[in-house]
Every structure is written in structure tokens, then in C-alpha cells.
Task: inverse folding
């Protein structure tokens, strides 16, 4: 290429750059153009690659022509880059100026506590005030702790009272929280005040008041001179604390191999006020708090001195109590994933939230 053609080619490259610049709107695109023109293999950069083809006395001139053109193009590209950057800053500024900090925020829905948890907390608060500790036992329990330690040997007909999910290796899904009685006696000895909330599992036919997965709270108090009236007084206190008013109770004899004597404390059905409904199986009463004086065999299995100590135990039906407190007619709502929040405890005369759909 002679010098005249070289000059022409340089002018062409500069014209191409000038015409493509308006379409270059990002720094990345500008870098691509820079490489395509000024890079070693670029439209201008490559002109220096042929410098050896020129006679020796022209090579200096060729170098100068190309390098000066390079400097001009580089200056043009830098100016475009500055333009793009200041446009970006302006865009950011105008976005920032359009932000109005006085506008109200986007409200996020609040989570709420499950009714069973809320009642569990009520019960825990009361018992902690009375000097009880809160224990937890495992949901997967040994047959021994779930039955034998509670005076229910393998052949005892009482095993049929609780439909059990049997696992392998002599383990079961605990059918009640009573195994925590045995665990606590062994762990703490006497005197002892403990409650143990937790999930229980039974192979049940489901209805408005029976679930296969439900919650109980076990209570156990062992000391000298503990008697049944202590238990009944505490039960009244417990239900008053949760319901925030006096509740009509009924006490009747009950049979559980791990207590002697055993009682059943029922509460007036809060759903129907006692007139009868599917939740209370038309009896007007809900079984809520079976209890009794701990059987000496159970105390002995927990290494408690039966000459010195007596104790009472109860197994509060926590899920049913939550139904009574919040006017939930059907127990199945509680495991259904229904996210409606608790509004307020029920007052006789009408539930505030309800498992209306299922009742
Ligand atoms: C027991 O489970 C005994 N362990 C309670 C006990 C403890 C008695 C200590 C004496 C001393 P029961 O099977 O009745 O007893 O259950 C206790 C409470 O759990 C019942 O009154 C009821 O409120 C609740 N309950 C029982 N089965 C279910 C179920 N399938 N769904 C919902 N709640 C249930």
C-alpha cells in the first residue's frame, strides 16, 4: 500500500468510527469498538503490521501517520465514554430524586401463633409461677417408657385403650406425654414439680374431637403429703388461667393403670354452652384433664421412695383446650394449615374464629 492509499484508508477508518459512535450506548460496546479498531488486528492497528512492506525511508512516516490517527481515535472514544458515564450518573440521580421517603411502606402480613402454642404458653406461664419446670420427652419412645414403666404390662387390656403406632426395635410413637413422668422421676428424683407439653400420636378414627396427632401437657407433682384435693384445686386454677374466667367443671372417676385413684375432669363445652353439639358428642362436656394419684408401682419404677412421697399426675388435652378457648368446632382445622390468625379468646355465645368449614 503506498502512502496515498494509506492516508485514504486512515481517513476511511476515522469516518467509520465517527459514524458508528452514536449507536454505541454502553461502556462495554465502546470497549468492543476500541478493540475492533485499535487492537493489533483491528482496522487501524493492523496497518502497522504491514510496516515492513514499505521502503526503509518511508517506515517512520507510516508509523507517525498511523500512531497519530490512533491517538485521535482514542481521544474520540474517551470523550464518548465520558458522555456515557455522565448520562448514567444523571439517570441514577433522577431515580434517586423520584424516591419519596414519605410514602407509606408496603405492608407485610404478620405471622401469628398457632392456637395450640398460645394455650401451651398460657399453661407454662402459670406452672412456672408455681415452681414447675418444663420438660420435653421424645416423640419416638420405647415401649417400656410408654407402657411398662406406667404399670401397663404387655398383656394388660389397657394397651387397647390407646391405639398405638408401633415402630421397629420395641419403639412406638408415644401415645401420651405420660412417659415423661418416668423420665423426670429418674432424672430429678423427689420432690418434683414438672410439666411436659408435647405431641402424641394415636391410630384413631378422626372426628370433630379426635386427631391422630394432637398435643397434651403432662403434669406431675411429687412431695410429702400431696393429695387429691391439691390436684382438683390446681386443675380449677389451670382452666381459669387459660379461659380467663371461671369454667364449669365436672369430676368423675376414671381408670388409668398408672394412677390410683384416677379421675376424669371434664369442662363444659364452650362451643355449644353445654346444650350438645358434634364437638362434645352431644354430651355438653369435653374430656380435658384425666388425672389421679400416681400409682406406687410407677413411683417405684422411677426410684421414688413410696414410704415418704406421694404425688399427683394429669394429662391435659391441650389441643381440645385450645379448641375450647378459641371456639374451634373441629379439631382437624388445627392440623390443616389454616393460617387465619387468632383474633381473641371465645366468649360463650359465639366463636371468634372457627373451623366452620368442617363442622
Ligand atoms: C391419657 O393419655 C393419660 N396419659 C392421661 C393421664 C395422665 C391420666 C396422668 C392420669 C394421669 P387419655 O387417653 O384420656 O389419657 O388422653 C388424655 C387427654 O388427651 C384426653 O382427655 C383428651 O383431651 C386428649 N386426647 C386423647 N386422645 C385424643 C385424640 N385422639 N385427639 C385429641 N385429643 C385427644
Result:
Amino acid at each position: 500500500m503506498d502512502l496515498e492509499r494509506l492516508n485514504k484508508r486512515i481517513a476511511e477508518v476515522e469516518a467509520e468510527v465517527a459514524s458508528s459512535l452514536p449507536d454505541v450506548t454502553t461502556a462495554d460496546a465502546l470497549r468492543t469498538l476500541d478493540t475492533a479498531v485499535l487492537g493489533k488486528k483491528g482496522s487501524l492497528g493492523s496497518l502497522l503490521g504491514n510496516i515492513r512492506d514499505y521502503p526503509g525511508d518511508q517506515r517512520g512516516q507510516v508509523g507517525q501517520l498511523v500512531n497519530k490517527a490512533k491517538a485521535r481515535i482514542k481521544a474520540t472514544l474517551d470523550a464518548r465514554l465520558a458522555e456515557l458515564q455522565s448520562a448514567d450518573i444523571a439517570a441514577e440521580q433522577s431515580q434517586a430524586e423520584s424516591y419519596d421517603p414519605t410514602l407509606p411502606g408496603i405492608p407485610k402480613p404478620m405471622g401469628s401463633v398457632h392456637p395450640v402454642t398460645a394455650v401451651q404458653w398460657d399453661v407454662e406461664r402459670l406452672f412456672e409461677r408455681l415452681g414447675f419446670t418444663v420438660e420435653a420427652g421424645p416423640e419416638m419412645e420405647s415401649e417400656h417408657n410408654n407402657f411398662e414403666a406406667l404399670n401397663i404390662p404387655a398383656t394388660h387390656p389397657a394397651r387397647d385403650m390407646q391405639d398405638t403406632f408401633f415402630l421397629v426395635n420395641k419403639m412406638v410413637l408415644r401415645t401420651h406425654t405420660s412417659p415423661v413422668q418416668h423420665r423426670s422421676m429418674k432424672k430429678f428424683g423427689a420432690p418434683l414439680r414438672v410439666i411436659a407439653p408435647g405431641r402424641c400420636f394415636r391410630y384413631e378414627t378422626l372426628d370433630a374431637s379426635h386427631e391422630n396427632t394432637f398435643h397434651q401437657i403432662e403434669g406431675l407433682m411429687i412431695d410429702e403429703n400431696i393429695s387429691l384435693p391439691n390436684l382438683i384445686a390446681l386443675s380449677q386454677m389451670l382452666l381459669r388461667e387459660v379461659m380467663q374466667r371461671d369454667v364449669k367443671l365436672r369430676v368423675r372417676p376414671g381408670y388409668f393403670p398408672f394412677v390410683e385413684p384416677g379421675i376424669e375432669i371434664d369442662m363444659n363445652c364452650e362451643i355449644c354452652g353445654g346444650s350438645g353439639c358434634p364437638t362434645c358428642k352431644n354430651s355438653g362436656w369435653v374430656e380435658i384433664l384425666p388425672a389421679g394419684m400416681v400409682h406406687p408401682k410407677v413411683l417405684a419404677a422411677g426410684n421414688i421412695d413410696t414410704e415418704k412421697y406421694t404425688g399427683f399426675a394429669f394429662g391435659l388435652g391441650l389441643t381440645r383446650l385450645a379448641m375450647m378457648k378459641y371456639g374451634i368446632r373441629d379439631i382437624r382445622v388445627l392440623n390443616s394449615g389454616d393460617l387465619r390468625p387468632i383474633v381473641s379468646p371465645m366468649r360463650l355465645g359465639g366463636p371468634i374464629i372457627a373451623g366452620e368449614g368442617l363442622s
User: Anything to note?
Assistant: The chain has nine helices and nine strands. The longest helix spans residues 59-97.
